[in-house]
């Protein structure tokens, strides 16, 4: 593990961080606008999107996948359940595990709005070619894995 960096390497890393943060914020605004248009806060929309694209999820997995603390997950799940978009289901094999799953109402609603959301996100990335998008995916995964690895050293 490298412990020393040149001033130039540090400056380049800080510039990269700032550009990355601004780009993330700009692209995220498209998703935030979508969620608000459909009457959800961004976290609620992210939970619905996760369940729609990945299927039923353990409540603990939802929190870790969306970087939420357990209290926030419970609050969001409660609200979405009250509004009839999701249901909690106990794992039949492990009674301690509880899953969140879309209801028919939730799935039907997302069948309607998710294609529009996907198009808006595609539009947000349309400044990059398909090849550039693939390269960016590879590079961001590489940076994220390395950064995560360093947290536990």
From TrEMBL:
It holds the Pfam family MarR. GO terms for biological process: response to stress. Residues 13-145 form the HTH marR-type domain. InterPro entries: HTH_MarR-typ, MarR/SlyA-like, Tscrpt_reg_MarR-type_CS, WH-like_DNA-bd_sf, WH_DNA-bd_sf. One of its GO terms (molecular function) is DNA binding. Keywords: DNA-binding, Transcription, Transcription regulation. Transmembrane segments: none annotated. The keyword Kinase does not apply. This is MarR family transcriptional regulator.
């Amino acid at each position: 593990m490298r412990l020393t960096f040149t001033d130039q390497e540090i400056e380049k890393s800080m510039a990269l961080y700032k550009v990355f943060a601004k780009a993330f914020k700009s692209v995220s605004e498209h998703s935030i606008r979508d969620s608000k248009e459909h009457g959800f806060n961004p976290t609620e929309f992210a939970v619905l999107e996760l369940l729609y694209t990945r299927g039923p999820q353990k409540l603990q997995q939802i929190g870790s996948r969306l970087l939420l603390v357990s209290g926030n997950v419970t609050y969001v799940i409660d609200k979405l359940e009250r509004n009839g978009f999701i249901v909690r289901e106990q794992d039949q094999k492990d009674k301690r595990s509880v899953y969140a799953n879309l209801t028919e109402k939730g799935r039907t609603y997302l069948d309607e709005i998710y294609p529009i959301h996907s198009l808006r996100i595609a539009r947000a990335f349309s400044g990059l070619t398909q090849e550039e998008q693939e390269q960016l995916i590879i590079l961001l995964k590489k940076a994220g894995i390395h950064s995560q690895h360093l947290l536990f050293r």
